[in-house]
Amino acid sequence: MIKLNKNLSVIAVAVLATFQAQADIRINGFANLTGGITSSEDSLYDYDDNIGFASQSLFAIQVSGDINDKMTATGQLVARGSNDYSADFEWAYITYQTSDNTSVSAGRLRMPLFKYSASLDVGYSYHWVVAPQSVYGVPFNNIDGVRFDYSGYTGDLEYSFQFTTGNIDSEFTLAGASAALVIDNVVAITGDFAYKNWKFRGVYATGKVNFDIPDLEPAFTQLSQLSASLSDKLQASDDSGIFYGGSIEYDVFDWFVAAEYTGVEISDSFYPDEVNYYVTAGIRTGKWTPFITYEKSDLNNGPKFLSEISGFPAAFQPGVTQLVVAIQQPAVAEDNTISVGVRYDLDTNVALKADIVKRTNDINDKEDSLLRFAVNYVF
Amino acid sequence: MLKKMLLTATLLCATSSVLAELVVVVNPANANALDSKTVQRIFLGKDKKFADGNETIAVNQAAATEIRQNFDQEVLGRSSSQVSAYWSKLVFTGKGIPPKEVATDAEVIDLVSRNPSVIGYINKASVTDAVKIVEM
Prior knowledge:
The complex is a heterodimer.
Chain A lengths: L1 H20 L3 E14 L19 E9 L4 E10 L6 E11 L4 E9 L22 H4 L5 E13 L2 E18 L2 E19 L2 E15 L4 H10 L1 H7 L2 E15 L3 E11 L8 E10 L4 E12 L17 H12 L4 E15 L2 E12 L5 E12 L1
Antiparallel strand pairs in A: 1-2, 1-16, 2-3, 3-4, 4-5, 5-6, 6-7, 7-8, 8-9, 9-10, 10-11, 11-12, 12-13, 13-14, 14-15, 15-16
Chain B lengths: L1 H16 L4 E5 L9 H8 L13 E5 L4 H9 L5 H12 L8 E3 L2 H10 L3 E6 L8 E2 L3
Parallel strand pairs in B: 2-3, 2-4
Antiparallel strand pairs in B: 1-4, 1-5
Protein name (chain B): Phosphate ABC transporter substrate-binding protein
Organism (chain B): Brumicola pallidula DSM 14239 = ACAM 615
Keywords (chain B): Signal
């Protein structure tokens, strides 16, 4: 982690040094001020029944400069409300335009998992108040590595392909406790296609996954005393994980409909097989874009490895079963979300938005409702 | 800000008083055949070179002008806000830089006349010998 940060700051300094040496520097920025309040006693996306702005607001500055005809350095400094608005270099990379159709970027980049990954933080670029969390709520969004881009078109068909490789290191919260996720040897391939009013996208990624979850350590220790092999299986330590996804969009400018589907499998671990999707539609009428989105997130596909317990002596089986289920439990979740909202284009660089979100926990039927409003700005 | 708004208002009045028909213009030395799809691709940053291999440099009119809004709607097929959202996606992913903006037809003509790579659009009434109309 320390080594990684060091590397990143070297890149950041290199990027800054490039800016100082160069006259042609572009400074752009974007801001999302997002406020929300839930129904009394509810809680959703870190909003509660007192009005709050921190959870999904952010301010960012992007600086880019041309090193020469072919090379560009880009740095993006982002201050997130969820991180007390302390600014971090979330992106710092250098792009080399190898030809009209191909480029190579290296440094800290956005991980191209989703349709809207690249512009995920730029609220102005999409209709939602915030991209659907059932799909987009992953613990990491950036990767330290290299990305190869290829794009072109024939007739009305436009296509682009990305090949990304590198390492991911992130911290996140699982069932209220802090945890770490490290994914090594990440390889991701994406393909984007646009044909007339249609857009299609596919992504497939693999990596060696390591979860470090301090809260689960005692259970793993207990289990390893009973069965080292089963404990090994449940631990996510250098285990292969796959991520896959697809999206489709039909947009005739007056209205649009789009859907995106993603899945995660880390078979040799406690982490449940995960499937998420959303379907969204909207109408553009003058400056107004009313929209509706349905989301579903499913990490509730039964505990894994139960069949392996039958090999244990009968007396041990209940204890082992209890541990195996308990270790998997924190990640289990299933919910669906409906949101209805509107975007208003105040100007060609300012949009106002509001939505109402209702998420239903499909396991215990608990509902949480949220009202959000946002100002999205780009310059 | 107020100044900008006043300027915008003046521009809007000035342009709407003439029945505006916009034309896409290039340097007279630019012999490339251009159809509306190609113009669209150039202004959306998708075509970086003309058929003859020369670089394309698109020049936009300021966002608040009527001619820009007409161009976005008629040629690019979407509202100026949508075009702006499109560019915000490219800018903040390091994949593109939007066309430079100028404030008047005269500035477009000046830039086009000085560089065969430049492509712009102006009111038909403003056309001079220094530029060539693209028939689309």
